[in-house]
Amino acid sequence: MNFEILSSEVQQFIYDNLNMDIHKILLSKSKFTDVSSKELVEQIESKVKSKSKLPTWFATDNIYYPNKLNLSQTSSEITANYKASLVIGKTLIDITAGFGVDCFAFSKKLDYVFHIEKNDDLSKIAAHNFKQLKRENIECYSSDGLSFLKKSNRTFDWIYIDPSRRDKDNKKVFYLSDCEPDVTTHLDFLFSKTLNILIKTGPLLDLKVGLRELKNVKEIHIVAINNDVKEVLWVIEKEYALEPIIKTLNYKSDTVQQFSFKLSEEQNALVSYSQPLTYIYEPNAAILKSGSFQYLGTNYNLHKIHPNSHLYTSDQLIDFPGRIFKMKNTYDYSKKSFKKSGIKKANVTTRNFPDSVINIRKKLGIKDGGENYLFCTTNINDNYAIISCSQIF
């Protein structure tokens, strides 16, 4: 950590150059003796990225930012605040704390938060920023999280873990047992220090695989922002032996779409099927990640268009956690059939369909964009079809 970056002159330079071409700064000699052009660019890039991802940090003076990679791996304020809503008690320890966005959110909900980060620079950066953010109930320690817990005589209301999803060669891994730390082999030890564990995993972890690797899972939360799944959260409670509930959330600019279910409800749901009716429903990304394709339809009294297409339809308009369209017409998947539509420009989505969007555009001779929406899918008769729609919500 270079404390010279926090000087008033350097901070003013960073603020004045947020909209500057960073390549010009990088290729120019730094005007500051103790701060390199590379360091200036790192601060500018990360501060710009924080404007939407971490607005509180962006709006606070003298924040020290990590490099762009570290910032990209941290939680957004939206997801951090949601995690904080899941915990109740007085104390929490984050044993993979990083830049500290989650700790900041937890500190607004709990009395004491312990920020444990093995990267000494990142630990110092977080400690500095917490002072700027006026959070006095966070203690920072530069240490390996598991080692810190083993040496500590304390117990905590919660342990929070965001395991690194990269191996020693910096390659991405997808199983919890391949992450660092491997929580699957340390659960018994962790439960000697707490009754409640919250684990964050990436969106690529298969839920059924996660349930096989973990035990005592009480809840699974799938969190998306603007239809992009950001993280999967696992609430684990010592001795919990009932069926977990799966909760999906999709944050949009003006609302939050929510849907919850249990795997037994999904397995026991009776599904009805239909040709496309007046309205077409496309589940949001969090629901698609959850795998609730049967119960979703029965819960909202909708028909599926095909067992594997995951599009739904009805004659009555309902409130639905996803995009809603009004159907205009359907066509066979052929240039001759589609020519009758007169559509030259459209947004194309595929569901259970063999061709790519690029190939579909070439075959049908249409450009991207506009107000027309086309779902290329397989219908109830196992035929490839095009559903032409206009979006309502």
From TrEMBL:
> Per the database record, which ranges form the PG-1098 ferredoxin-like domain?
279-321
* Ranges of residues in domain THUMP-like: 322-387
Q: What is this protein called?
A: Uncharacterized protein
